[in-house]
Amino acid sequence: MEKVKTVLVDRKDGVATITLNRPQAKNAMNPQLHLEMLEALTELEDDDDVRVLVVTGAGDSFCAGQDLKEYFYNIDDKPRARKKAREAALQWRSYKLRLFPKPTIAAVNGWCFGGAFSIVASCDIAIAAEEATFGLSEVNFGKIPGGMVTKDITDILHPRDALFYILTGRQFDGKQAAAIKFVNYAVPRAKLMEEVYTLAAELKAKHPEVLRIAKETYKYGKRFGFEEAYAWATAKSEQLDYKTGKTWKKGVDQFKQKQIRPGLKTYKWEKE
Question: Which residue range(s) make up the domain with 212?
């Protein structure tokens, strides 16, 4: 019998939506899901028709973290299966998703625990349902936030918040996730996907190469020192000019002709 797909991919009007599809397990990540996510992201990253990527979960959950039974317990004494699952888990979250060449949005619709924090952290933008429930529950079953979870939390949260939730395992809702800036903002669950797709449309209206290089400049360069960061940003700006034929001149011309105000509106660009 063919396995039910743990990852569903929908493409519409330049936006690809990946839905984690294990609602019966709160979309917890098992080895199959890790492998299917790696395959899906590898396919989508080279699809020129995809301009924005949205990641969400089926049912009432975003993702309940790693599947404790299938990811940890069942393959604990199977080193090859364990290695394959661990490598796929790291590759798709910390590399493929974090460095995806188009804007990414996490739509956190419900339960978000443990390893799911790395999914949210790896997305460029995160919007949560106010009713969503977050938690770093590893301490409650004798583990620590492993893989890249602790690192991701360290990069995003204030030290007081990071250690508080790591050490207590306490839950918090979408409003609190926004307050501590783990997500950008929260809206009522009933309005979540409308809000996400409105944002996706806003991003889709901007020049894709400008977005890609702006993202690379930030993500690769954020740990450089001052001199290295200046050199990196200068090189990326020159790369953008080369790739787009100085597309910024179109924007400036439209500003000079009073067609746009860049602080309020995206310039009209043609696909290069």
Answer: 208-256
